Amino acid sequence: MMNKSTLEQVKNVFAIESECIREMEKYFDEEAFEKAINLLKNATRIGASGCGHSGILCQHFAHLMCCIELPTRFISPAEAVHGATGYLKAGDVMLFASRGGKTKELLPILDICKAKGVSVITVTENLESPLALGADVVLKQYVNRETDKYNSQGTTSTTSLAVIFHLLQTALIEETGYKNEQFALIHPGGAVGERLNKK
């Protein structure tokens, strides 16, 4: 039988993460968000990179963008400095996700982007960090605390990052005029595809 304190800790996750999402709106910067949307909707190609949980969420971001036909790929920090940044051309956009904004593996990629004329969006809590100061646009991430008792696992922080990416996709659907009929063509699979393509 599960320990009572374990169950209390588990139920507390709902409170921690819902509070984070509610509080995030206070940090929503409309001007920065609009700049990010303008960069993304006009980019020929988009890259996204991060390490650990942030990297995994950047893969989610890349998929969200592809689902609205904005060509995007996750660029592994390890592969980026071994030629993968050749994917990006001048006028494209690179998105970095780093809660602390100091992820060492991402800093060389930032330098490459600046040298190539690639615009940079950074999502971070630390507005004074190297990745923030080197960006064209910074989107503020907010995290109250992680859900584990040690406040160290990438839990609430990944929820926070996912919400920011969902905000971006929601806005881009509106700003690009993306139609559900387009999505139906590229998503024939699964229950969603069946629903979208029902005659």
Brief characterization of the structure:
With 199 residues, the chain is α/β, with parallel strands linked by helices. Helices cover 51% and strands 11% of the residues. The chain has helices at 4-24, 30-42, 52-66, 77-80, 107-116, 130-133, 156-176, 180-186, 190-196, and strands at residues 46-49, 72-74, 93-97, 119-124, 137-140.
Report on this model:
By secondary structure, this protein is an alpha/beta fold. 51% of the residues lie in helices and 11% in strands. The chain contains nine helices and five strands, in the order ααβαβαβαβαβααα. α3 links the parallel β1 and β2. The mean pLDDT is 96.
Annotate the secondary structure layout.
Layout: H1 4-24, H2 30-42, E1 46-49, H3 52-66, E2 72-74, H4 77-80, E3 93-97, H5 107-116, E4 119-124, H6 130-133, E5 137-140, H7 156-176, H8 180-186, H9 190-196
Parallel strand pairs: 1-2, 1-3, 3-4, 4-5
Helix pairs in contact: 1-7, 2-7, 3-7
- Distance between the terminal alpha carbons, to the nearest Å? 50 Å
Number of helices: 9
Largest sheet data: 5 strands, parallel
* Shape label: globular
Jot down its keywords.
199 residues; alpha/beta; globular
